Amino acid sequence: MSKKCLICGKSSLTKLKLKDGVICSKCLKKSNWGKSWGTSPNAALFWAKTKTFDEFQEFLANGGNYKTATQNWIKERATKNKDKSNVIVKNVQNKLSNDNESSTSNLSLDNAMAQNEAEKIQKMETSDKVKQELIAAKVFDLTFVKKEVKALPEVLDNTEVIKYACSGVLDGHTWLVVCTNKRVIFLNKNMVFGMDQKEIPLSVINAVSYSKQLVSGTVSITNGANITGIEKINAVAAPIMAKTIREQMAAIKSPAPSQTTVQPTTDIPDEIRKYKQLLDDDIITKEEFDAKKKKLLNL
Description:
Elements: E1 15-17, E2 22-24, H1 25-30, H2 42-48, H3 53-61, H4 66-98, H5 109-122, H6 128-136, H7 146-155, E3 162-170, E4 173-180, E5 183-189, E6 195-201, E7 207-212, E8 216-223, E9 226-234, H8 237-253, H9 268-280, H10 286-296
Antiparallel strand pairs: 1-2, 3-4, 4-5, 5-6, 7-8, 8-9
Helix pairs in contact: 2-4, 4-5, 5-6, 9-10
């Protein structure tokens, strides 16, 4: 595949990769695409890699742009994820059937997918703690967010535990969404450098809702007047994420068990003797002594 732009014939460090060549950022910006390479959404860049130059030109000629490409990629990915989920479940159930496991019929879709994903998580470039927590949380949808998973140890504090995670679309980009015991974190590792990070503390979340589409789901988080909607989440993962956030909200907002303070028992005779000694030493008057004595004896 040529490293020179298929339009101007020049070499460039920033270029859109196609199936059979590249287009430099300058030519891309001049076309109907609408953005340069560096500012194009990740989903649009992934979509372009699956197209030849002729297919790309035809796409632009028919009014296509980076927004259309992003939408096409999301739709294609959602369809593939559904097909992949069905294959995974079928394979796992067949394996259990061959092993004469009696629990085959009770195997849930999320458990089947989590079992399949566990081996992949073990091979990811991230800390052992993150790997263990992702597997323990039965996470299975980490499509296109491996770089974000790698960066997780830098984001989490020492007392933070991953409760669930998945990938989803926010502002036209694919983000890693992580619910911990303290907050909901959104990570998007940029193609060139840096990383975008957003977070919502569990303590400020007012409500969490979930809606299901044909092959995906949307989780909406409300905090005050702000609503953050994460779209195109795997249809199985979306309700699990919504449920997990609600559970962690309840856990963090639950009042601590009340502690009864035990008042020390007063030794009344000893207290009276102390005040009598103060009277004998002319430190208090007879009236003050009588008042203290009555109070101690509840007279």
